[in-house]
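Title: [Solved] Restriction endonuclease 3D structure

Original question kept below for reference.
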Amino acid sequence: MGIPNNIKESHLLQAIEKINEIGVDSLRASTKFELYYKGRKYPPKEVIRYANVAANGTELRDFSGGDESNNYLINSGFTIVLKNTDKIIGLDYTKKKARGINHIIGTLNEMKREEVKGKDKISMGQAAQRNGERAMDHWHDKNIILYGPPGTGKTYNTVKYAVAIIEKKAMEDIEEEVMKDGYEQIKKRYDEYKEKKRVQFTTFHQSYGYEEFIEGIKPVISEEKEGEIYYTLEPGVFKDFCDTASRDKVISIGDEKFLNPTVWKVSLEGAGDNPTKRECFENGHIRIGWDHLDEKIEYDTPITESDSVKRILLDFQEKMEIGDIVVSLRSKESIDGIGIITGEYEYDQSYSHYRRKRNVRWLVKNINVNILDLNGNKNLTLSSVYRLNRITITDLKPIIEKYSGENFGSVKEPQQEDNYVFIIDEINRGNISKIFGELITLIENQKRLGMTEEITTTLPYSQKKFGVPSNVYIVGTMNTADRSIALLDTALRRRFRFVEMLPNASVLDGVMVEEIDIKSMLEKMNERIEVLYDREHMIGHGYFTELKQEPTLKKLAHIFENSIIPLLQEYFYEDYQKIQLILGDLNKENEYKFVRETEVNRDLFGHVFGMDIDNLDLTYKVNTAAFTNAESYKKIYNS
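Solution (posted by the thread starter after getting help):
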């Protein structure tokens, strides 16, 4: 029995809705193919079976899978992929594969189904197949790890992935841009996105923990009472990034619009009523002191005051942004003003004191509002400036409305949700359980905020609900020479798509250094390493790319002496015979060898018997003269 031709697109969509209700796991799994739709995957035959219920009232069971089901779905504008991969297939995949034709194309992207609908001159099946031939530009896996040996361009490629994700383009499009306009153009856009806080980069290491990544309580030295320490709650880099991404909306206050405001507390000449505060309220700004220090403090500016003073000044200068919210301290429990920062940092010498200034539009002032509960029952301190991590603009909205009467209710969502990319370099070097904690589940595609299986958790320190926004993408890198994927934390491994990055010697095509073919040399060394060790410890092409700009023997010698030989010594634990095999030294004359062997002088130890030195025949030494001898390199691949 074939598939009834009265099953329409609307029936297929109803089937997908039904499957979402009952759960994909309860269905009979497909062995080879999956239907991809809005970030989820479904067994193609099960979708058609339930679509028949919607169309004809009965379940359809006796029909063929494979090409019959796949072709029907493709012709209806859906995407079919090979199971457990991101490879899109075209029409008649099984039949064509049997003839040896590989029709796996592109990286997985949801079909632009609206475009398919609008094509009058071509059939829906032709449109779907055409779209399948190039990855669509608005879908990427939420969690990706680029893994491979050192020097294969993992960190280099995170730049391209980040730009592709943010601009909602296929990687093929970005690669074409690199070929046409150069990597520098992509890097320039990446830097711009980083400046706009759309990209965050961090590196994991053994001491990296939950407090740095999610949130933690950190000690701060009081500026008022010398030697006294108090503790503040600080968001980690990932939580802070997620907060920014989830606040991806324009907040309107009257005629002004502000994006993602941070809430700051400022002490205007301390607490309570005072002349400086009255002047600030009247003239629309905030002012702080330390007038005896430089007008502009840099991160490396030496000051005699404590580090907390430098942090305050840098926060006021560098971290506060136009559009952020500022509240004025009245007492340890209350505030007396709320405003929007409207100006950049200034040093105003017209004042006799408190010369560091920013312009502010005061929304409400001369009030007395207790915000202890909003601040997690934590007292405010006299410290001049610090961020109120527990309080958001949404928390302050009722106060502003009550005391100002201004229309604060307008919150305009962007027409299209912006993507954010969080890059984790050396992700395998951190203790994943310690760093992610309970968030390891929340990063799954379907557990993200706004998804069908959305999950939030209560954070242990702030007691705030937290979830990972669906527009946050995580791109990690992993050096396989440090740690095999097989040894990677299981919880992490099953939540990421792994993209292998192997040495690409073709990047070095045409690179010649005094008739040394760099591409051939690298290929030969890697062939030998794969046999003697494994593919995860091959040498990356990145070590040699500098030779494209500086193709000199001096540069090549520097690379070998400072990178390649030490890397091989690390790989083979100074098993110099294997290193000699990699470098072809066993087939070279002595003067061309990178590693020379020398017979042991037994007289060196006198007449000693029954010791291990009886079996010590040879010692090995790196021949530094070989680094500047072109023949030493040629004989690596010609020996």
